[in-house]
Amino acid sequence: MANLKDLKLRITSVQSTKKITSAMKMVAASKLRRAQNLVEEARPYADRMSKILQKIALSIDPNASNLPMLSGNGKDNIHLILVMTANRGLCGGFNSNIIRSARRMINDLISNQKEVKIFTIGRKGKEALKQEFGHLFVEHFEDFGRKGISFPDAEGIASNVIGLFNNGQFDLCHLIYAKFISAMTQEVTCHQAIPYKTDVLEDESNSNYLSYEYEPSEQEILDSLLPRNLAVQIFKSLLENGASEQGARMTAMDNATRNAGEMIDKLTLKYNRTRQAQITTELIEIISGAEAV
């Protein structure tokens, strides 16, 4: 039979854990509201910029233009994978889902005789992937400062990526992150960032397309907007990832708090039954002793 002192210690320990998980849930809920607002503000801007770029890009011949970020360099041998995870854990399967998708993509590319390079954003992604693919790492970033994700951070990351591309370090770049759907649902997403894909709006543009005159030329506009768009898309992806992280953490801590409550109830019931049995045994011993006298 379990010792009453041990049961009491276990109940106290679980109660302490429950307080921590409950506090973490409330903090995550507060951060989630702010992160969700940032995502909702960033999405229209990023989507609109993407549509403008696609319309301009469809008005020129990408193969005739001197825009490697649009037309590519004619090769697809070296792939840079930009993996976005969190710096911390305790957020359910958030990090593991992203890492699993990244690992699957890396292995698929390697099996197809492609060279892979890895750029991680977030400590958890680096720790997990470096064990198996340490020799493939080219860059890592995790210091967002006390205020969290900012556009200058995204610009710095985009600048590093463009520098690697201009130096011939890779042919294609892919972003892997968790798209925020709701507090309980995050969707791991992968899309090509370089070269910029223009096939999304082709059907729409062909059926309902207005001709515009651009000043300066389309190529000059694209030359300026393509790097900016990469920074915007990275920033939006980071915001999506941040909101997904907080949603996953809030859900995980809510589940942990509920489980702790259930465990406390079971341990308390066991404690009361053990105490009752102990008292009953003592009473029987007293009565038996009195009868013997």
Q: What is the CA–CA distance across the termini?
A: 30 Å
Class inferred from helices and paired strands: alpha/beta
Poorly predicted segments: 201-207
Secondary-structure element pattern, one letter each: HHEHEHEHEEHH
Estimated helix fraction:
55-70%
Based on the structure given, which CATH architecture of the largest domain is correct? Answer: 3-Layer(aba) Sandwich
Radius of gyration: 28 Å
How many strands, what sense, and barrel or not for the largest sheet? Answer: 5 strands, mixed
What's the arrangement of strands in the largest beta sheet? Answer: 3-2-1-4-5
Count of domain modules: 2
Count the beta strands.
Answer: 5
The general outline is elongated
Mean pLDDT: 87
Quickly count the helices: 7
Q: What is the fold's blueprint, element by element?
A:
Elements lengths: L3 H55 L9 H4 L6 E7 L9 H18 L3 E7 L1 H11 L3 E5 L9 H16 L5 E9 L5 E9 L7 H6 L10 H75 L1
Parallel strand pairs: 1-2, 1-4, 2-3
Antiparallel strand pairs: 4-5
Characterization of the model:
This protein is an alpha/beta fold. It folds into 2 domains: 2-19 and 255-285, Orthogonal Bundle (Helix Hairpins); 27-197 and 211-250, ATP synthase, F1 complex, gamma subunit (Pyruvate Kinase, Chain: A, domain 1). The protein is 63% helix and 13% strand. Helix 3 packs parallel to helix 4.
